[in-house]
Amino acid sequence: MPRIQGTLTIFAAASLTAAFNQMKAAIEGANPGSKVDINYAGSPTLRTQLAQGAKADLFASADTPNMDGATSDGSIVGQPSIFAHNKLAVVVPASNAKVVTLQDLAKPGVKFVIEQPAVPAGNYSRQSLTKMSADPAFGADFSTKVLANVVSQETDVKAVLSRIQLGEADAGMLYVSDIAGATPGAVKSIAIPDQFNLIADYPIAVVKGAPNATGAQAFITYLLAPSGGQAILQKSGLVPVTS
Questions:
Q1: What is the dihedral of CA 100, 101, 106, 109, to 10 degrees?
Q2: How far apart are the C-alpha atoms of 111 and 158, rounded to whole Å?
Q3: What is the C-alpha separation between 206 and 3, in angstroms, rounded?
């Protein structure tokens, strides 16, 4: 367990909520008087906040483009470290029978929710639909039909999951790890085969001018430790980078 003193502020992609909340509890429990503040949101939102001068110690993104953007903005220092991977899945309400297969997403009348294109999961989801459209089992117009069913474009994966859990839509696309953090019994998932899926890389880096740079480095070390953060990430549905 890392020795962290004072307050550590982390800007983290919404899909990391379950895993990072566990790490927060463990770190605070092992370091009396310490505090881990985590701001969860879509990666582009976090990147914008940092560029506008928001104070933080660490930025954990759900993709490399937003981390690259933060580097270009001058918001971070040092070399980012890839600490996890993630894959996409389709999520449906547990009581919903409209969407049973991936092909059902294109049926007329299906209410589909997806993240905005700038959000990593939204970008990957659209790429996944394009891959499916190249397969005769789906048809060349599959992606067009599915996107025509979109009733809402959300700012992060948590918002997509919330709409599904509330029964406001028939299906959505997000990360496997997000489904692991859903209310028990509220949703079901439909796997997306690897040939249609995309692997999301999650990088983390220290923010320029970090008030607690020492704590930030200690957190990264813990995050990359097989028996530390990596074990928690795996339990939360993400794919660790070390074993």
A1: 0
A2: 17
A3: 17
Helix axes 17-30, 213-224, angle to 10 degrees: 120
Percent of the chain with pLDDT over 70: 100
CA distance 75 to 92: 37
Strand partners of residue 91: 172, 189
Q: What is the predicted pLDDT for the residue at 243?
A: 53
pLDDT tens digits for 114-137? 999 989 899 999 999 999 999 999
Total residue count of the chain as it appears in this document:
243
32 contact partners, CB below 8 Å, separation of at least 6: none
Question: What integer best gives the mean pLDDT of the chain?
Answer: 94
What are the backbone angles phi and psi of residue 152, rounded to the nearest 5°? -160, 140
- Count other C-beta atoms under 10 Å from residue 224's C-beta: 18
Q: How many CB atoms lie within 10 A of CB 191?
A: 12
- What are the backbone dihedrals phi and psi of residue 237, each rounded to the nearest 5 degrees, phi first? 95, 0
How far is the CA of 161 from the CAs of 75, 118, 128, 218, in angstroms? 30, 18, 18, 32
pLDDT at residue 195 greater than cutoff 70? yes
Which helix or strand (DSSP H or E) is residue 17 part of?
helix 17-30
Please give the order of strands across the beta sheet that includes 88-93.
150-154, 112-115, 171-175, 88-93, 187-191
